[in-house]
Write a structure and sequence with these properties.
0% helix; rod-shaped
């Protein structure tokens, strides 16, 4: 009877809310195995967040195997996880009914693996920049829009003939 165990899982330390990331599994198998599902969840404050649509159906060969599975935070259940620090729990499952997703008919192969590293999900803040000319006949501006915190943007003012640029204001103050 072939057996398998997870020896390590790697993933990014930090990601932003709503993003996807990859989990890279290092798996030792004694014998070839087919219909193996790579399961994963992240846990914070006793709540597990999983993403069954990204369960990966793989085959293992005898010896060392490296496999990759994606995890889409936006599609996680019971809901998309919020910013914070999460434990990463993974397991190998036998796809007993052949449907390609982990369900109640499947069985864990061996034990689950909780990574010693944690995943930090960062909140993303968006800011809106509005540009305008006063008076409107005085010229034009560009560069406004909604932008992520930490990004840089260039705003431009172009004065019409007979006008000069005076200053930018923020919330009505120069």
């Amino acid at each position: 009877v072939a057996t398998s165990s997870i020896s390590n899982v790697t993933f990014p330390s930090y990601i932003n809310t709503g993003e996807s990331f990859n989990l890279n599994y290092s798996i030792a198998a004694t014998g070839a195995m087919s219909n193996v599902l790579l399961g994963a969840s992240i846990r914070r404050n006793g709540t597990d967040y999983s993403n069954a649509s990204n369960d990966a159906l793989v085959s293992l060969t005898n010896g060392a195997n490296t496999k990759t599975r994606s995890f889409n935070l936006s599609a996680a259940t019971p809901s998309a996880p919020t910013a914070g620090v999460y434990d990463v729990i993974v397991a190998l499952w036998s796809d007993k009914n052949g449907n390609g997703i982990i369900d109640s008919q499947d069985a864990v192969l061996g034990s689950t693996y909780t990574s010693s590293s944690q995943l930090t999900i960062n909140a993303i803040t968006n800011y809106t920049i509005s540009t305008s000319s006063i008076p409107t006949a005085g010229g034009s501006t560009s560069g406004g829009g909604s932008y992520q915190s930490g990004s840089s943007r260039t705003v431009t003012a172009t004065a019409n003939s007979g006008y000069t640029f005076s200053n930018w204001t923020e919330n009505g103050s120069p």
